[in-house]
Design brief:
- The protein has 529 residues and is α+β, with helices and mostly antiparallel strands.
- It has four domains: 89 residues, no CATH class; 76 residues, no CATH class; 106 residues, no CATH class; 185 residues, no CATH class.
- The chain contains 14 helices and 19 strands.
- A hairpin with a 6-residue loop joins strand 8 and strand 9.
């Protein structure tokens, strides 16, 4: 099998047979000698080289090896070196269309990102001028830094030979010594002449050295800052994902603890089926997982890139991930909107019971207690007395009501039971309130209350609430048992509310109603009476 050689021709890599390589090498050397003393000759050779690369690509592409027949066919198309007329001026010489100048970052003469050098190459001027401009605009106006960073992100780097050729334009390889661009060697190595830019004066070179030293300091500072930010990104994303998995997969209880003993904890997934339709629950969980976890995974990936400062061709993957995230977020919003319609309107209903006679002392006694219920899970809102208890076997929900005790303006004892629910419309919401099951009764001088009300089996939770509003005349004594005291939500009369609440929790449950509200039944309260 013949030996093949890798060459760089016009910024494109080709695999060429050894015989074909010798013919091509001699042909290019002859062209280079032909145009060595002609004005614009180097540019002409470069244009011919680009044309040769185009011909090879059309003949074999980039996969196969260029053969001797391909080279001979190319020479027949372009012509032999002696066929070119070099006796005239530059305008008389055969000219091939050169690449139009494009703006790139220059990796061969960069201090930080090669932005200034790239601008200088594009505008055919000294890069030190742009460096001074960026520094001054950063110091005095503050915008230079952001403009530089924006250009650093937006402009691609001229890494390949074709990009360098486009960056310098006709000035590319103008500093050569008669060798054509992309010199070929018999061992297959490709020596490419990087375009140089040599318009800088001695003062400019001195300033460049200063900028280069400052650039190294800035680069070190930037790397340290990027590493710190990257580590914070990785830790944040990892901890968030860990918490999410512990809560929703392993159901780790510590996150939802409400600082009580002997309770069962409820998790979002368990309670979700009592809020939305059962068919939507798995979709909601999948969509929530994607919407929450995908940004955290991206945060970890960006953090790793900032720590190790590497580039990757991840544009397509990032775009696909963004599209997936947006689609999941949109689907989650649609499902959430459809399910949220059932909470659009609020309905209220109330029942009032009046005692014909008001006893001097009223006993508040609990009939049915939550402790006697067979429930599996409990959810309690933070800083609220609102608690929901789940019975998985009966598919029922139990909710703790609240009790408010206030002075009666008409000196009549009455209990008003106020119910509230939500629905798609007000009529539906009111019907839901009427279906709530709650028991209470007056027996002589006692008010017997249940510690919970029941949401009927098969009905979804609709932010249901029951409030017990007890109005009693001033001077009436109230005695609570330990369970009924939990239901009380009343503003007690005292100058120091925190002190009063501690008194309420430590008192035996004996209180007296005054014109200002409830007060502990004590010698001081008795004297006020």
């Amino acid at each position: 099998m013949d030996k093949t050689i890798n060459i760089n021709l016009g910024g494109t890599l080709f695999n060429i047979d050894e015989d074909a390589f010798r013919i091509l090498r001699d042909y290019l050397q002859a062209l280079n000698s032909r145009f060595a003393n002609v004005q614009g000759g180097h540019e002409t050779v470069e244009d011919i080289e680009l044309r040769i690369a185009e011909i090879f690509q059309s003949q074999k592409g980039l996969a196969g090896a260029v053969t001797k027949e391909n080279v001979e066919s190319m020479i027949a198309i372009i012509g032999k070196p002696e066929d070119f007329d070099t006796s005239g001026s530059e305008s008389d010489a055969p000219v091939y269309t050169s690449q139009k100048k494009r703006l790139y970052r220059n990796p061969d003469d960069k201090i930080i990102g090669g932005v200034s050098s790239g601008l200088a190459a594009y505008l055919d001027t000294d890069p030190v001028l742009f460096r001074i401009l960026f520094v001054l605009s950063t110091i005095f106006f503050g915008v230079g830094f952001f403009v530089y960073i924006g250009l650093w992100i937006a402009l691609p780097e001229a890494k390949t030979e074709s990009r360098k050729r486009a960056m310098y334009g006709n000035a590319y390889n103008r500093q050569g010594t008669g060798t054509y661009a992309g010199n070929l060697t018999l061992d297959g190595a490709a020596i490419t002449n990087t375009g140089s830019y040599n318009n800088t004066s001695k003062l400019g070179n001195a300033l460049n050295e200063v900028f280069r030293a400052l650039g190294r300091v800035f680069y070190i500072f930037l790397r340290v800052f990027a590493i710190i930010i990257g580590v914070s990104f990785v830790l944040t994303g990892f901890l968030f994902i860990l918490c999410f998995v512990m809560i929703f997969v392993f159901k780790f209880p510590g996150i939802f603890s409400i600082n009580e003993t002997g309770i069962n904890l409820v998790y979002f997934a368990d309670f979700l089926k009592y809020i939305v339709s059962p068919a939507s629950v798995p979709w909601l969980m999948i969509l929530v997982s994607v919407v929450v976890l995908l940004p955290m995974i991206a945060l970890i990936y960006w953090g790793v890139k900032m720590i190790f400062w590497f580039r990757a061709r991840d544009g397509v993957v990032s775009l696909v991930a963004l599209v997936v995230w947006v689609m999941c977020l949109a689907a989650l919003a649609i499902i959430g909107f459809n399910e949220g319609v059932s909470f659009a309107e609020t309905g209220k209903s109330s029942i009032e019971t009046v005692l014909p006679q008001t006893p001097d002392t009223i006993y508040i006694i609990t009939d049915h207690k939550i402790a006697d219920l067979k429930y599996e899970k409990q959810i309690s809102l933070p800083h609220e007395e609102y608690s929901v208890f789940l019975n998985e076997e009966k598919k029922e929900l139990y909710v703790r009501p609240y009790l408010s005790v206030d002075p009666s303006e008409d000196k009549v004892t009455r209990l008003e039971v106020r119910k509230r629910s939500t629905g798609r419309n007000e009529f539906e919401a009111v019907k839901k309130t009427e279906a709530l099951i709650y028991n209470y009764r007056f027996i002589k001088d006692s008010l017997n209350l249940d510690e919970y009300f029941t949401i009927p089996e098969g009905r979804k939770w609709s932010a249901d609430e029951i409030g017990l509003h007890l109005y009693i005349p001033a001077g009436t004594i109230l005695k609570f048992d330990n369970t009924s005291r939990i239901l009380v939500h009343t503003h007690f009369h005292d100058e120091n509310e925190d002190y009063l609440m501690s008194r309420w929790e430590s008192e035996t449950g004996n209180w007296i109603m005054t014109s200002d509200g409830l007060e502990p039944l004590s010698s001081k309260a008795s004297s006020r009476k």
